[in-house]
Amino acid sequence: MRLYNTLSRRKEEFTPREEGKVSFYICGPTVYNHIHIGNARTFLSFDVIRRYLEYVGYEVTFVQNITDVDDKIIKRANEEGRTAAEVAQEYTEAFIAAMRALGIKDPTIRPRATEEIPAMIELISHLIEGGNAYEVEGDVYFAVRSFPSYGRLSGRDIEQMRSGARVGVDPRKRDALDFALWKAAKPGEPSWPSPWGEGRPGWHIECSTMSARYLGTPFDIHAGGDDLIFPHHENEIAQAEACSHVTFAKYWLHGGMLTIDREKMSKSEGNFLLLKDVLSYVKPQALRLLMLQTHYRSPFDYSADRLREATASYARIESALRNLLWSAENYAAVPLAPNELGDKSVSWTADLLSRTEATREQFTRAMDDDFNTASAIAAVFELITASNSSVADGVFGEAHRRAVLEAYATIVELLSVLGIEMDVEEGAAREEFPAEAVALAAELAGYEGDSPAKAVEALLSLRTAARAAKDWPRADAVRDGLTPLGLTIEDTPSGPRVIQK
Ligand code: AMP
Ligand code: ZN
Fold first, then answer.
1. Which residue out of 227, 232, 253, 296 has the highest number of ligand 1 atoms within 8 Å of its CB and is therefore the one to mutate?
2. 285 Cα to the center of ligand 2, angstroms
3. Could you say which ligand is closest to the alpha carbon of residue 207?
4. Predicted confidence (pLDDT) per residue in 395-426, tens digit
5. Which atom of ligand 1 is least distant from the CA of 223?
6. Which residues make Cβ contacts (< 8 Å) with residue 182, sequence separation at least 6?
7. How far apart are the C-alpha atoms of 310 and 292, rounded to whole Å?
8. Which of the two ends of the chain, N or C, has the fewest CB atoms closer than 10 A to its terminal CB?
9. How far is the CA of 26 from the centre of ligand 2 (A)?
10. 8 Å CB contact between 421 and 439
11. What are the φ/ψ torsions at residue 109 (nearest 5 degrees)?
12. Rounded CA gap, 24 and 223, in Å?
């Protein structure tokens, strides 16, 4: 398996620290608002990467923090006359609910910044002792000059940044690039006691502390959106490595930004769509399908049109699966005689089996190559197309039926690796026909029950019997009665079936 490491700027072979196990950290949200679909894209990308690692057999410890103390949370709390803790609690719960609604797996551990403050104070104290940080009037800053490889992750020219940053720099800082580890409390702000007085941690120190605490160092994968490379991840590395001299994370994975009309979706810019709102009108599977059709490192431009297309593609998958299941259930027990359609049922079987195997291989190859979900999905669609044509004339014989069920199971399994869960099986079993079918069946076929599905069955049996007896008016009465209910009879080689248009 190869993955692109931002640190080396190339694809590298993935070798976890411990065989069979992966330690994975992803920066979580700042909980001052509902998350937007840009945030969701990043979380989705890494959910799929985690799922794939688990699929190939790794035991993954997946940690995602919650930033529940921050300027933006405090600002919102003040505007609304609530405490910062109340605001953070509300949006933490909303975040967890939205993640689950999109089918994102819960992390193994979800630490909250406000519950980890003693460990942060300990790390900051170490940094001060080692000469990597200094205190000024209750604030503590990281001394960037004390960490010579600062800028390595983002590949930035530190001297250039330094001269660019000179204007308006806090005169108490020793270097324009120094950043806050601890902020002295201002009146009315939440605060915690520390050796430097009452205050609260800076954002970057949270992640260095929580990742090392729950995963140890070096851990395997650190992930986030590519807007976090600088300064957040650069600072996380500096803080963690300055005092420990041990590599912090081995592989840095960054997702591309979601844009809308080519602009980055962002809460502060105000051009955002909330995940919870989008999920009120689109199925989570369709949204996942849409987002995963672009490679996770590329930018992704969202539009309502693309969402509509993905919804239609998802419906195509559902109906293909339903059709496969129906065809396999209603198969002709005997293979086609060689003189009927040549030896087609034999070649249909062989072709479908080999396409199924090829799809599995393509899927794995694509995912092993830096998680190329777009081409993994393309491989699944090839199997869907092949399956559709394999059953177009019906399913003949046990071998063909088994191949069709194998293709069905493969499509369901591979989509579920991407977190696209299909519930067609259940749906097909309780196909929802309109209630009016009951009255029609009572009238024409003397049906006495109240199940629309059974009523449709009774109507089909009546029609089959009528046709056998050459009672055409009676057979036509069934068809004509179903039409106004939006139901059409389709005669297939495996027998008649009713479909909803
Ligand atoms: P934040 O709450 O702003 O720290 O963002 C949480 C996560 O969402 C981070 O991993 C960000 O990189 C990511 N993120 C923010 N905006 C976008 C966007 N427009 N597209 C993709 N990811 C984003
Ligand atoms: Zn972070």
1. 227
2. 28
3. 2
4. 888 899 999 999 999 999 999 999 999 987 64
5. 10
6. 121, 124, 135, 138, 139, 140, 194, 196, 199, 200, 201, 202, 205
7. 10
8. C
9. 7
10. no
11. -135, 135
12. 8
Cα distance between the two ends of the chain:
45
3-state secondary structure labels for all residues of 202-253: CHHHHHHHHHHHHHCCCEEEEEEEHHHHHHHHHHHHHHHHHHHCCCCEEEEE
Q: Which CATH architecture does the domain made up of 314-417 adopt?
A: Orthogonal Bundle (1.10)
Name the residue of 37, 41, 42 to mutate for ligand 1: max ligand atoms within 8 A of Cβ. 42
Which atom of ligand 1 approaches the CA of 30 most closely? 2
pLDDT tens digit string along 419-449? 999 987 644 444 578 889 999 999 999 999 9
pLDDT at 228: 97
pLDDT digits (tens, 9 = 90+) for 204-216: 999 999 999 999 9
The partner residues of 10 in beta bridges, in order of sequence, read 5
Question: How close is the Cα of 14 to the center of ligand 2, in Å?
Answer: 22
pTM for this entry: 0.88
Q: Per-domain residue ranges for the chain?
A: 2-281, 314-417, 436-500
| 48 CA → ligand 1 middle, Å | 17
* 80 band by pLDDT with thresholds 50, 70 and 90: very high
Measured CA to CA, the distance from residue 191 to residue 189 in angstroms comes to: 6
Q: Any residues with Cβ below 6 Å from ligand 1, and which?
A: 27, 29-30, 38-39, 41-42, 224-225, 227-228, 257-258, 264-266
